[in-house]
């Protein structure tokens, strides 16, 4: 009875240590030898601690017969190893099954989106050629109209030719975002100040296209239109340790209620759905809806 004491504590501790450290940090990164060493070390140390605890409990509380340290240690090592191995394998099988379901769902979603895109296509190449024709017929002195149409054409071209891929390079996506911001600024008056700051985006990182722009579109939609104080949108995009960070803040009027990511707004609802499918546990999307400003923070782990 006393020898069997406190197995559950060490088995649980070992499981969490292996599942939260050894598996994601070593096994998933193909460091099999280090994974084996780390796992054996964790189990051996816990068996040793468990033996010490069992001996002390047996001596001071249960007053049982004196038992050899090596015997208890060997029993602890075998029992903890078997239980931890069993629980870890079950957990990995469950995770694998859930991942497979997510992949199947993602594939169905991809096929559906592709079909919807094809159905909605009204010869986009012809439309792009039409835009170029219109651009050629605009009087050269009307620089504003020509600039607006040219920017719209570039936006449309990016969505037509680049966004068919599952992932695009971050520098291309940021170039599209800057073009989109410039296009939107033409629709606003001079009272709107837009700051866009990008850092370390040329790191070779790739992301799914048209994720960040949904948040920027929301900022332009709900930005304030004060006549006596500043109307502002701040956009910050940077990469740190293979993780993409994006922060978007816009001023808003007190009576205005910006769209929440969980309700309303097809764009944001679709964005949240895409993030759940594409990046599952590898992203965070936080919203801060204050009285006079609205902030969204998105981070994506590209690994």
Account of the 3D structure:
It is a single chain. By secondary structure, the protein is of the alpha+beta class. The protein folds into two domains: about 5-115, no CATH class; about 190-300, Histidine kinase-like ATPase, C-terminal domain (Heat Shock Protein 90, 2-Layer Sandwich). About 60% of the residues lie in helices and about 15% in strands. The chain contains eight helices and seven strands, in the order αααααβαββαββαββ. It has helices spanning about 5-25, 30-60, 70-120, 125-135, 145-160, 170-185, 210-220, 265-280; strands at about 170, 190-200, 205, 230-240, 245-250, 285-290, 295-300. A five-stranded mixed sheet has the order 2-4-5-7-6, with helices on one face. It has a two-stranded antiparallel ribbon with strand order 1-3. Helix 4 (about 125-135) runs antiparallel to helix 5. The longest helix is centred in the first third of the chain and has 52 residues, at about 70-120. The protein is elongated, with a radius of gyration of 29 Å. The chain starts with 6 loop residues before the first helix and ends with a strand. About 15% of the residues are buried. Residues about 260-265 have low confidence and may be disordered. GO terms for molecular function: kinase activity. InterPro entries: Bact_2-comp_sensor_kinase, Sig_transdc_His_kin_internal.
